[in-house]
Amino acid sequence: MEAEGMSDVVSEVRGSAGLITLNRPKALNALSLGMIRDLTAALLAWRDDPRVERVGVRGMGKEGPFGAFCAGGDIRFFHQAVLAGDPRLEDFFTEEYSLNHLIHAYPKPYVVFMDGICMGGGMGISAHGSDYGLRIATERTKMAMPETNIGLFPDVGGGWFLARCPGRIGEYLALTGQLIAGADAVAARLADGVLPSAELPTVWESLADGERFERVREALRAAPPPASIFAARRADIDHFFALPSVPDIVRALEADAGSWAAETAALLRKRSPLMLQVTLEHLRRARHMTLAADLRMERDMVRQCFHLRPGTASETFEGIRALAIDKDHAPRWNPARIEDVTPEMVAAFFASPWPAHAHPLRGLG
């Protein structure tokens, strides 16, 4: 066994496995640019290393391994970078999206332990695992793509993997930012199975031995799917979230007499009206794209999030301010109402600032 550093990312080779631990528990393992670079370096080093037959990724919780996977990208860094004009903000998204694609195309089983919180950027390093990898949820899993709450859109390939959820579950999760549990993640095809969190240390140890791990994987994939909230709400979700536009969705929800519809409409009214509509357009475009093409589109979109309205005028800057900096939970969205967003406002996010030959993600795919 060889371990490298007690930094925010700890990597080691044990038996025939490469093991990665996200080691920033006080920040719920939120991804910094340094962590993205360390993750990428480890995966690239092991991709062609004959000693490494599979890769495992877990998060360090406040009380030890597991308990928290990854709360997303470091949004406090985004806020500081905007104020300082820090060019590393551009590097962050280019390198994060490149990492997402590397995981998607990884030639070895990629096993991720989505115990505890798994949101945003944490989904980007978990949802893209290959068919012969394993995405493990637990009874403690708290999964979400909550970007519309901070004036952003579900990035890290979120358009691609949410668009491939059954029915209109992806639109529902993308627009509302709703938190779901492990069983719901399996139903949404964002996890492969649910294990009791008490079993995770044993499964982690099994990664070092190919035969032991194969037994674990077969047992988890063969287990009957756990009960999910989507079983009861699937018809409603598919009905409302298939409607052509966000105003159509909200009007229909508000016209419905049911409590679920009213609660869902009220939730949508709290999100960024502009980014709700950008997000819906994003998912519907991504449904017909490869992941590489979606990530290139997302790179265009995130550039526009910070530069269409530069600096503190950015919808994303304002959303982060309200949620994580001032914590007043009173974002001043612009426009303030869903009904005031124009098609031209939405279209601007999909205009690439780069020609194809100079795009920062031109090498993907």
From TrEMBL:
Domain of life, source organism: Bacteria
InterPro entries for this protein: ClpP/crotonase-like_dom_sf, ECH_dom, HIBYL-CoA-H
Any Pfam family the entry gives: ECH_2
GO biological process: L-valine catabolic process
CDD domains linked to this entry: crotonase-like
Record keywords, A-Z: Hydrolase, Isomerase
Gene3D superfamilies in the record: 2-enoyl-CoA Hydratase, Chain A, domain 1
Entry's Gene Ontology molecular function annotations: 3-hydroxyisobutyryl-CoA hydrolase activity; isomerase activity
Residue ranges of domain Enoyl-CoA hydratase/isomerase in the record: 18-350
NCBIfam families cross-referenced by the UniProt entry: PRK05617.1
The protein's name in its UniProt record: Enoyl-CoA hydratase/isomerase family protein
